[in-house]
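dumping the sequnces here before i forget
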Amino acid sequence: MAEYLRARTVDEALEALARKPFRILAGGTDVYPAAVGGPIRDPILDISGLSALRGITREADGYWRIGALTTWTDVLRADLPPWFDGLKLAAREVGGVQIQTAGTVAGNVCNASPAADGVVPLMAMDAAVEVSGADGTRVEPLDAFITGPRRTTRQPGELVTALLIPDAGAPGVSDFLKLGARHYLVISIAMVAVVLHRAPESRRIVRAGVAVGSCSPVARRLRGLEAVLCEADAGAPLEDLAQENHFAPLSPIDDVRATAGYRREAARTLVRRALSTCREALA
Amino acid sequence: MTFDSPAVTVAFTLNGRPARVVTQPLRRLTQVLREDLGLRGTKVGCDAGDCGACTVLLDGEPVCACMVHAGRLDGATVETVEGLARDGVPDALQSAFLRLGAAQCGICTPGMLMSASALLRRNARPTEAEVKDALGGVLCRCTGYSKIVQAVMAAGGALPEAARAEAGQAVGARLDRVDGLPKVLGTDLFGDDFPPADALTVRVVRSPHHHCAVKLGDVESWRRAHPGVEAVLTADDIPGRNCFGVIPPLADQPVFARTRCRFKGEAVAAIVGPAAVVEALDLSDFPVTWTEKPALLTPEAALAEGAEAVHPERPGNVLVRGLVRRGEPETALAADDVVTVSGTYSTGFIEHAYIEPEAGWARRIGDRLEIAACTQAPYMDRDDTAAIMGLAPEAVRILPTSVGGGFGSKLDLSVQPYLALAAWVTGKPARMAYTRPESMATTTKRHPARITATVVATRDGKLAGMTFHGTFNTGAYASWGPTVANRVPVHASGPYLHPAYECRSVAVHTHCAPAGAFRGFGVPQSAVAQETLFDELADAVGLDPLEFRLRNALTNGQPTVTGQVFAQGVGIRACFEALRPAWEKARAAADAFNAASDGRTRRGVGVAGMWYGCGNTSLPNPSTIRVGLKADGTLVLHQGAVDIGQGSNTVITQICADALGLPVERFTLVGADTDATPDAGKTSASRQTFVTGKAAFLAGRALRAAILQRLNARDDSRLDLDGTCLRAGDRELDLTTLEADANGFVLKAEETFDPPTAPLDENGQGEPYAAFGWGAHVAEVEVDTELGRVFVRKLTCAHDVGRAVNPTLIEGQVEGGSAQGLGLALMEEFIPGRTENLHDYLIPTVGDMPEVETILVEDPDAHGPYGAKGIGEQVLIPTAPAILNAIRHATGVLIRDLPATPDRVRAAIKGRG
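..and the predicted 3d for all of it:
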């Protein structure tokens, strides 16, 4: 019989984690699929009742805070600026409606699948992870927090309590494209997210985020491309700025869904398309 | 805060009423509902959030109940399918599902209903796109989704009235499915839905390797060390023969392997005990030693010189070969003045992926066994299980449950031997339901095929010769491998006139899961090769693909490749002609689109034809139907043709009703209980409407004759049944005055039909089937050429069904079969040991299916009831080649290795240069 503890407060959860390396149960959409045909044997800390961790708020310090238990349906229904559209598009692609209703944003991040739909737009938005522990809270950039497939820097005594997204303070747009062999309920072959912000009074791009998923052990940002985009005029054909060398951070593999070579090419095609969509939206 | 708590008490609102359960906090809500509260309308398809069958509303939002833990339920609101109807009266959505044919087998229906209910509460008049978004998380394998989407959109408006048919007018009417109400209410009883309350649970120990030596240790000591485990069953416990198989002379599959496992997932033992004990067991200490051995996973490996024999008695690993030969194809292929095309093709294992995993229960009653399980073949189950148990066939009673999809795989035994043995040995009832991975790893699959074919035509576009060689991976055991190897040579010609033809097939053993029956028995694979080669040939001779097919399509009076000549009923030409308007319009539209396109997106239109023999190939194939009146006026139809969702309960009743001359609603059905109902054969080979339907026709007519004789009434008398008063014209009879037989019948008829066939000779010449079904599909696709992603925009499907007994049900077959064809073409491939779940193995979702337009052609067959022919498998065969031809039309590339996944399509487009 697995040990089970239902936390009533964040502090209670942290106290428990300080004592013992519980497996954390929130929406259940990763814990239960891993337990088909057998019982759950890990000690379980149930945080699904921590309503304080649910919801999206704009903080006074210029950050958007997505509470750890915010579901993908919550994201879809939230009133958010246009540069969150890519995140909303990703929310619609996390499984079916049933998964979106139950699955949480932090769960998607902590599960650290190379094909996590939510991680890609969050990375492109410069999201950071708020990790709470007995000694307080630390904030780590998302691309540093996830270190490999199913691996993060979260320590056994820690709990992810929110995702933090900086507000660029400038008008922005975003896009997310997911490529799979079917519609709905599909693990992606490749996916990309692009977030662009332009100067309030001109078409100059002041911030660019481009991330690619399912083409490396952890979703990767294309920093070289982002740097080029930051110099660009939003009216120019941005898609032509994406060059082969910008995709060097990717290391796709062959698997049942596609070949590595295909993934590399598809990532570039998707990035070009997302840039094109964002350019049109910015213009 | 609770530590190590064995149980929690949760109080929540369930369907508007307070509910309180004491349960394990990590127990899945599906188990709480089904096992603790007895609400079995919520179905379990995968336990992994991949299928959506268990969708319920939690605080008003759709969730998969399999991933909701009991510990979070306190204070929550839960709504299940049981909460939709009021006093057994379906709500508007349920009524729409029933009326529009949205429930076929019914296993996904509760999940669909709950997902749609959540949408409709938010949005009473949703668009089609909104409906698809809402249903995208629920898989259906039967319907192709069209009728489900239509039902959700119709639920907010006025529904059409239920069709009513006067006596004698049921055939051809769109009657509601006679077994449909429980399916939409969620009260239908599938394999895991009504186990005896005290049933023990059975769990099977299975090989982790494709091929290994196995040695069991001291299982009895292990059992004693695990309190609560009542029995560990092994080969030593089998009272009869440790061997089964659907084709008795080739039966080769052990219930429990003794020394060697030949595929990953093969059973070696079964553990029996209370569910809580058995499910919690950690089997890592089970006393078994596996010694992995090199595995032969492809026919190429298994046929290689010196390859180890999977079965020592079948050296060379060849299970069976098939041949049909007519004329001199070598001469035709060598001629100077012909145009030649050839190609090599490959297809993979295809999983049936019904949403109901195999499940059932059994109990021992004295020296008899009762087994209730989902099945397509009750009498075959009975006989094979009896042999395993060392019992007479009559000592085993098979009670088929409702079947949540079958498509061929539930013809073979799955849970039955384990249940039988567990109940027999322990003396207590036993139950089991396969997990999704267990179902996928261990039950039969569609055969992977490797095909090489060459076709030649004269320059004016007449077929001159064809050769075809197909190698089929039949896996570790025989199953239906011989049927595939025999059907393919008969059908690989397609429905065309071939002057010279040779088709050879071979079924090869490997260390893979057994390949068996799957809708079409190898013909969908062969049609991919033949129908796409025909498009290349049409191009080569400069003919429109539809014109080329019409020029070569069989007609009445022409010999098939087995030399069979039909004087009537050859409907393929009519199917092609029926498609001509859609074909011409779609081709022109695609050409116009492409002319205006920058090339990134291109459209294409493809066509493919099909023929498929109804019933067993040159083998006896009888069905028996019993119908009779009881003294209380009950009209009982013993309907033994198992309804796996295709609609035999309804269709057989419609046929019998018209033959008898009483309306359908007067009938009371008794299902395929082998103690009560005569053998109507297996639900397979597209034979139930054709063969059992004919038996029902004969039985209905015979009962009518008996009534007329008894009442001394004229042949054309109108029958009427009013309580116990039976009238024929102006004559009447009180049924209570008649003497009842042992079964309570006062008037009864029982008739058998066995379609006439003739054996095939050494060249495959003969009359394999009494009738064929004919059809053709037009597929319209759009290809994203940069990504290789294919979207099917529309399917137009013409089928000669002889007589459409129930057009709604036939449309459901066409829509669902073409969805499986789409999956075969674009996304489905089972890889043993790798894709044993419904997120790595992809079947089409509601978002993948386009509009399907069905055109019913009715060229009556002389043997079929009211002219009806089979339709169940026919519908799947032309879809994949039509899609592949459409991709070729769009892009110029023909994908010969299926599925046509984005990376393969893209690679082919790049390779085109």
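Chain A touches chain B through 56 residues (CB under 8 Å).
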